[in-house]
Specification:
single chain, 1 helix, 4-stranded antiparallel β-sheet, 20% strand, 113 residues, alpha+beta, 17% helix, globular
Length: 113
């Protein structure tokens, strides 16, 4: 019986994980991207400018991880109603104001009805 393929995704173009987790895990064609905060991969600090700047940086970090896995934002579940994750925490790492996670498909995505 063949096993399911799992690959850990890591890129220097996004900040290293703060703690015991991976930037992303690819299982077969499904990519699970860990929550990204507005941290600069260059110096490890939260970008200045508030929540909008942090959200923009978090999305840049996510894009770098997606590219490392061989996919793009086009394959992030965003057009239909995805599974939902909502968290309340006392504080995000490094005092971040926003964290964004994603699930994406690696490969050609075909929608059916």
């Amino acid at each position: 019986m063949a096993g399911i393929v799992r690959r850990i995704i890591q890129t220097a173009k996004a900040p290293s994980a703060i703690g015991p987790y991976s930037q992303a895990v690819l299982v077969e064609n499904t990519l699970y991207v860990s929550g990204q905060i507005g941290m600069s991969p260059k110096d490890g600090n939260i970008v200045q400018g508030g929540v909008v700047s942090e959200a923009e940086q978090a999305l840049k970090n996510m894009q770098a991880i997606l590219e490392e896995a061989g996919t793009t934002m086009d394959n992030v579940f965003q057009k239909s109603f995805p599974a939902r994750a909502a968290y309340q925490v006392a504080a995000l790492p490094k005092g971040a104001k926003v964290e964004i996670e994603a699930v994406a498909i690696v490969g050609k995505l075909v929608d059916t009805q």
